[in-house]
Amino acid sequence: MESVALHHRSIRRFKPIAVDYQALEAVAQATSSSEFLQSFTMIRITAPTLRAKIAKISGSAVLAQPNGELFIFVIDTSRDIHLTDPASDCHNYTNWNAFLAGAFDATLAAQNVLACAERSGLGGVMLGSILNDPQQMIDLLHLPRYTFPLLGLIVGVPAEDPQRKPRLPQALVVSENTYPAFDAEAMAHYDQAVSDYYANRASGARQESFTSLVQQHLTADQHHRDEIGAILKAQGFNLPQA
Ligand SMILES: Cc1cc2nc3c(=O)[nH]c(=O)nc-3n(C[C@H](O)[C@H](O)[C@H](O)COP(=O)(O)O)c2cc1C
């Protein structure tokens, strides 16, 4: 098995060295695609003022520094609709299935780019924080109807060497034939491992366990993310609740 994939860490500080962004763009396009519709668009951000505005939305320190290539991965069924008869019912390009296909394609492309970058000695981090203000992202990138900005990714030459974050015990996540039983003892051990990680990490040491993280998430301010349903509707997606 390939060991690079097992040593993944998110990288948030980069050296001022150019990366081969065209190779990464080609990798994104080579990714598996749901129903071969290729329902995503990848936008490379090069304009400093635009990057600064995205940095403000994201609030992430990684965008406060100028290095690394920033890509935005967009769910996109607008191309498909453009290619069909304007009089036809475009339900199959606006429904949950189409939306999920776009989410699969955009996410897999982003992960393929990150994995390829890591294999090449680069590093990076996904930026879900662009969803702190999806409407502003739509306006900034001039996204048409039937698109949605799902995920950012910044990739560059690492200027840091962070520790790996411990993952959940395999027995809680990986199973055979049926859903795994919740193992409280394994979780307690994992909480300790996460506490040790946060207490000892080189930057930003703090007191935290996995359970405390999950509990804090309940009260995180997500008011912009709660607007996602209405924004998707305004973008033309038809995603009714059951
Ligand atoms: C969909 C997604 C969105 C993410 N968004 C952010 C983000 O906005 N800012 C950030 O610093 N890290 C972000 N991350 C990185 C996670 O925080 C990171 O993967 C997680 O803490 C595990 O750490 P590791 O990647 O170093 O193993 C995101 C990861 C994923 C998969």
Automatic annotation (TrEMBL):
Residues 7-156 form the Nitroreductase domain. Keywords: Flavoprotein, FMN, NADP, Oxidoreductase. It comes from the Bacteria. Belongs to the flavin oxidoreductase frp family. This is Nitroreductase family protein. It comes from Lacticaseibacillus baoqingensis.
